[in-house]
Design a protein that fits this description.
Rossmann fold; two-stranded parallel sheet; alpha/beta; 8 strands; six-stranded mixed sheet; about 40% helix; 6 helices; about 210 residues
Amino acid sequence: MFFDPQPVPAGGLHAAATERNREPILAVLQRVLPPQALVLEIASGTGQHAAFFAAALPALRWQPSDPVPAHRQSVAAWATAGGLANVAPAVELDVERWPWPVTRADAIVCINMIHIAPWSAAQALFAGAARILPAAGVLFLYGPFKRDGQHTAESNQRFDERLRAEDPRWGVRDLADVAALARDAGFGEPEVVAMPANNLSLIFRRR
């Protein structure tokens, strides 16, 4: 399914990467998300993903979230522009602050967050997801990852170096470390899907 890019709505922010990665991500989500579900998106950012996925998957109820007020405003702008009744107002959610404002969800989607945050945010993400997801509930992650301690592409290594220069607590995470964190939180081993631009989709299911 192909969607033409939408004009940026008034009050909306725009990230070019979302238009490049949204269709490959959607193809994975169509396969792994329940056909009817409440999906919590963590770190919704501009809201472009929320609007695109909610339009393509109208049977899902999409709950965006972000700790940044400007991002939540942008989510609202994109949802309004798309006339999307299945996108709830974005809530303020910082994974490291408990309790979360969402107490249950059937699935969680988190795109491009854990490398632009301290490792404690990844720990909090899995801990919180384990609390609010049902048995077999899906936690979907997308982004660049190292494998066996090695970057999968020179571009990812350069990106990692830029991140760590900006904040030494940030950086591209190793898949084995993330999988170990998931196991400790009560999730099974991830399904790993290779994505364009040297990224991965990781699908974890709560045990």
